[in-house]
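Hi D.,

Good news: the full-assembly prediction came through. Inputs first.
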Amino acid sequence: MILIAIILGCVIGALIGINMPMISYTYSGYLAIAIIAALDSVFGGIASTLKKNFDLKIFVTGFFGNAILSILLTYLGQKLNVDIYLAAIVVFVGRMFNNLGIIRRFYIEKWSKNRRKNDKKEENKTVGE
Amino acid sequence: MKKFKFRADITTVTVVVFIVCIVLVSVMLMQFRTIEQTDITEIETMRESELRDALVDWEARYDETITQLEAVNGKIGEYNKTIEDSEAASNLIDEELKESNILVGKTDVYGEGVTVTLVDNDNYKIIAENLIDLANELRYAGAEAISINEQRVLAATDIVDMAEYTYILVNSQRIEGPSYVVKAIGDKEYLSSILNLKGSGFVDRYTTLGYNVSSRQENRVEIPKYNGDFEINYMREVESE
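Then the structure:
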């Protein structure tokens, strides 16, 4: 059910995105930061789902809140003549890698367990980070 | 506990995920299109710092171009001056050449002067010496151009008797009698008076001796150009410092 929602959402989003008017290049910097923040939230959500501590409120507020906050911070940075968006990018991308690492480890452990179950004779290889 | 909570909100989660997907994908696609279709070299899309850099760059180029333009204009002025100079020089050279050609005898010339006619008679036959004598006297009287039977007399002209006085060579061209017409351009009065001077004038002397010689003043004497080539084989110019 969630999978269907994801696929349908992506298709509809693609259609909307293609038909949306182009924005000015000046503002595309803000949008890029917002996208990074949203992606960070999505990966965070996936990671927490795998850890089974997913909270919808946290996810939704993180998704929209981080995006808006990053846009505001970038704007503030422009006014202060400080490249705050760099800090935002570092934080968000760092967290994205972190979450991706969690997701990766989860699936590798699952795969290793499956192999152990199938072939009990063989010593299990632990793949650590 | 958490798992239970998660399952209880499944419809809400689905709706939220659906909305999140729509928002994220549409915004990302919008951004992709913007970045793809924007020409970052266009002034309208440049950021402030880029514009500043571009402005500085253009200013430098402008200055450079102005300098180059000035240099090129200076060169053009120089070239124009050179052209004028060489035109003046070439005009001068042309004039000099014309004058030299006239003096040297490379052109047909005309002007007032005298015609002296020498005809062989029974007593005397005209020989080269007589012609040399006449040419000498005409030169002395200020003749600017002389011809003997349409052969121009120049600095390099030879006047010699050939084959036992049967004919005369002028400019190495055969001249045959019996009558020889010598033309000279110069002051016709003066030339005529020198030639007819009693006792020493050519016409007077030769007439007294019994030659058949006569002179006539002319308002227009035409003297042809020298037809041969000037060859310089042995002489070289002495280089002076």
